[in-house]
Write a structure and sequence with these properties.
alpha/beta; Elongation Factor Tu (Ef-tu), domain 3; Rossmann fold; 2 domains; six-stranded parallel β-sheet; 12 strands
Length: 221
């Protein structure tokens, strides 16, 4: 059975990505890194279900989602960004394949960082961030989701890269084989990968070529 929850507030975290704070159903549980199916609770949109990751923690009194808008699709994300407080969503049960194993390297492309937000926040709360790194690829600096929080959490273990812009404080270029060879000290550790399908496919192949074992790659299929 879906749960109907009310939008309490929303705010921009980048020019095209919003943070949504939703009511939390009584007894609703999830694990950092998990997602759920979301639909807008209207006749027009209720059959248009899309998966979105929780960016809140299980002990929080509300649910938080961090969602990038894709206006060119004129679809669900565009409609979500236009909702006013009080609008209702339908959400299902929690599910997901990105589960934290032990310290390793998180590699994200764009909005693919969202499953890692709750995982890294969980690790921060548990005092267990040591040994983890985040490599985060975006087009330009204005696209970097939660940059200030990641820099505060991870310090030098946060490595943002930009593919379409040269800017101070960022490495310019793609996360490719040369970048990973120069940046990763050991390929005998977990790698958590999320992003567009082509990004995930390329990173996975590169890591295996560089010596990572397939069973150390944590990927949301």
């Amino acid at each position: 059975m879906p749960h109907v929850v009310k939008l309490l507030m929303k705010e921009f975290v980048t020019h095209d990505t919003m943070r949504f704070i939703m009511e939390r159903p009584a007894g609703y549980r999830f694990v950092a890194g998990q997602a759920t199916e979301v639909a807008i609770h209207t006749e027009q949109w209720k059959e248009e279900k899309r998966p979105f990751t929780f960016t809140s923690l299980d002990e929080d009194g509300v649910l938080e989602f961090t969602i990038k808008r894709y206006p060119e699709h004129n679809g669900v994300t565009n409609a979500l960004h236009q909702l006013a407080s009080g609008a209702k969503w339908e959400i299902g049960s929690a599910w997901g394949a990105i589960t934290y194993k032990k310290p390793g390297v998180f590699i994200a492309g764009g909005a693919g960082v969202t499953p890692f937000i709750a995982i890294l926040r969980r690790l921060r709360e548990d005092g267990a961030l040591q040994g983890n790194r985040l490599l985060f690829s975006n087009k330009t600096a204005r696209d970097v989701i939660l940059e200030e929080e990641f820099r505060d959490m991870l310090g030098d273990a946060f490595l943002p890269t930009l593919t379409r812009e040269n800017a101070p404080g960022y490495r310019h270029g793609r996360i490719d084989e040369s970048f990973l060879r120069d940046t990763v000290e050991s390929f005998e550790q977990p790698f958590y990968i999320c992003g567009p399908p082509s990004f995930v496919k390329d990173i996975r192949a590169i890591l295996v070529r560089l010596g990572a074992q397939p069973d150390t790659l944590v990927i949301e299929e």
